[in-house]
Amino acid sequence: MEQTTNYRQMVLDTIANALTSDPNPEVRSKAAESLGKLGDQIVTPLLLTALADSNLAVQCSVIQALGHLDNEAAVPKLLQVLENGATTTRQAAAAALGHIGSEVAIPSLLNALSDQAPAVRGTAASVLGAMGAEVAIPALLNLLTDSDPTVEAHAVEAIGAIGSQFAIDTLVKLVADPSPYLRQNAAIALSKLGRRDTIPMLVRLLQDPDAAVRETAVDALGTAAQDYSVA
Amino acid sequence: MSITPDQQAEIVRILCQLLLESDNPRIRARAAKSLGRLGILDAIPPLCQAVSTDSDVQVRLNVMDALVLIAKLNLTAMAEPPKNQPTFNIGSVGNLNTGDITIQGDQVGIQYNYATSPELQALISELNSTIAELQTQNPAVSTEFQALTIIDAEFTEIQQGRASRLAILRQQLLNPERHFQASKATLVEVLKHFLEESVWAKALITYIDTLSTTPEEGI
């Protein structure tokens, strides 16, 4: 047993040393990743220090590792990265914060929904959706008209995941919006909620004057039907 | 029948030696990978040493994967169990070599199916001593290519009529009917598994691999 403890310490020390001292960034990345997989909380302070690594890829691995470790102590630093980091680290920080799932992160994640980088907006949307953050619904609805289609898709998913009454009310209004584009997105979001009362709205959209909306309505009905069959 | 703990310990010892002493980084990297698959705690100190001292990046990367695998298999106290398991992202799973753990079974299978045949074991030990002999005779050789050249020369000499240990070896190697039903490809794999310790072994494997599958041809 004592031998086991020694080995455990030896592995941690060795990999920690590689993270701080190896000249090669790939090796430092792997070291961070390994520490995340080993899952020992004792390395959290070391990983937090390694956030200052000169290499962006290493920083991203460190952020992911902090997400894996799921330690609330990492939240303040991760919030800093989410606000001031490079695009890739901001995205990684959003994902890691989602992993940790700390409510404290929600305001910063809401800000991240208007990040200049689509990747960050999309990740923030997914994370808020997974966290079930109702407070994010208005901002997520705005993203339904995002310039980046991937972000829109993430926003739709997130709204579906949160599935609150407020979200449904808003979507019901949007189904009748003058913009065919919004009608489409709202139909998709509604179909993902898996609620029986949304079916008539989707059926009505089959008569929509806009051809693209009618097509989307067909898809949406298919999605809604799937949800019911599963339930 | 599977291999005994003693045999396994011996394999671990050989792999650790290769990891720390082979001058071929690809061999060192493969030794690290194999040690990770075996998941034996005793490999931890040499692996830790390799992380700190090996000059080759790929070796250091493989060694860390191996350490994580061994730690995961043996040192479960390292993790806070429920939290840790589902947290791997897709990239991590790829690097974790989860698939390789199952491959271990195949390797044991190979060892069992072919290495337990007395003929093949005799042959392997014969090859090992041949390699040792070649090594002593040609101490300056350091690359697989040089070794290959000499092995080729030795075999050519056989063809010119000089009966030697290598001549017998070659006949045995290329006579699948008498000694084993395995295909040459399988033989090469088995030999790789048992011999891959030096440039000589590598060269010999390469040489066997290039030989004709028909025993009569070229002898």
Number of domains of chain B: 2
Kindly estimate the percentage of residues of chain B that lie in beta strands according to DSSP: under 5%
Q: How would you spell out the order of helices and strands of chain B? A: HHHHHHHHHHHHH
Biggest chain pair interface? A-B, 32 and 32 residues
CATH fold-type name of the domain at 163-231 in chain A? Leucine-rich Repeat Variant
Give the CATH H-level superfamily of the largest domain in chain B: Leucine-rich Repeat Variant
Mean pLDDT of chain B: 65
Task: Describe the structure using short key phrases.
heterodimer; A: 231 residues; mainly alpha; Leucine-rich Repeat Variant; 14 helices; elongated; B: mainly alpha; 2 domains
Gist of the model:
The complex is a heterodimer of chains A (about 230) and B (about 220). Chain A is about 75% helix and about 0% strand.
Could you give the topology of this structure?
The complex is a heterodimer of chains A (231) and B (219).
Chain A: H1 2-21, H2 25-38, H3 44-50, H4 56-69, H5 75-84, H6 87-100, H7 106-112, H8 118-131, H9 137-143, H10 149-162, H11 165-174, H12 180-193, H13 199-205, H14 211-230
Helix pairs in contact in A: 1-2, 2-4, 3-4, 4-6, 5-6, 6-8, 7-8, 8-10, 9-10, 10-12, 11-12, 12-14, 13-14
Chain B: H1 5-21, H2 25-38, H3 44-53, H4 57-74, H5 81-84, H6 90-96, H7 98-115, H8 118-137, H9 144-159, H10 165-173, H11 176-179, H12 184-195, H13 199-210
Describe the structure.
The complex is a heterodimer of chains A (231) and B (219). Chain A is an all-alpha fold and 231 residues long. Chain A has a domain at 163-231: Leucine-rich Repeat Variant. Chain A has 14 helices and no strands. In chain A, helix 1 (2-21) packs antiparallel against helix 2, helix 7 (106-112) runs antiparallel to helix 8 (118-131) and helix 12 (180-193) packs parallel to helix 14 (211-230). The longest helix of chain A has 20 residues, at 2-21. Chain A is elongated, with a radius of gyration of 22 Å. In chain B, helix 12 (184-195) runs antiparallel to helix 13. Chain B has 13 helices and no strands. Chain B has two domains: 5-100, Alpha Horseshoe (Leucine-rich Repeat Variant), CATH 1.25.10.10; 117-210, no CATH class. The interface between A and B is medium-sized, with 32 and 32 residues.
